[in-house]
Amino acid sequence: MRSPLKSETYEIFLEEFIQLRADAGLSQRDLADKLGIGQDIVSRCEAGRRRIDVLELQQWAFACGSSLFDFAKKLDERIQRNRNPDGSTRGWKSH
């Protein structure tokens, strides 16, 4: 069983997270400077070695010229396309 940090769904999140910055034309350093944090933090988040909370995500989306809502909508669409035929989401353990 994969750890939650290595689930397919989390991998989709990371891909969309990285794409958010790339679409804004920002390097990791550029984003870090806009947020007032170190580039190493951006790198660790994008590599999945550090989780980001929803409030940080909102700030990062804004720094990239987007919004939390737009990011979440795009992420949800990707996750929906990644569903199994039975409706379960790959990478998430149902309870």
Distance between the termini: 14 Å
Number of helices: 5
What structural class is derived from the secondary structure elements? mainly alpha
Strand content: under 5%
| Approximate helicity band | 55-70%
* Order of secondary-structure elements: HHHHH
Instruction: Quote the average pLDDT.
Output: 89
CATH topology: 434 Repressor (Amino-terminal Domain)
How would a crystallographer describe the biggest sheet? none
Q: Any low-confidence stretches, pLDDT <50, length ≥5?
A: none
Classified in CATH, the superfamily is: lambda repressor-like DNA-binding domains
Number of domains: 1
Radius of gyration: 14 Å
Q: What is the name of the CATH class?
A: Mainly Alpha
Shape: globular
CATH-level-2 architecture: Orthogonal Bundle
Number of E-type strands: 0
Write the layout of secondary structure elements.
Blueprint: H1 8-23, H2 28-35, H3 39-46, H4 54-63, H5 68-81
How would you describe what is shown here?
- The chain has 95 residues and is mostly helical.
- The protein has a single domain, classed as lambda repressor-like DNA-binding domains (434 Repressor (Amino-terminal Domain), Orthogonal Bundle), CATH 1.10.260.
- 59% of the residues lie in helices and 0% in strands.
- α2 packs across α3.
- The protein is globular.
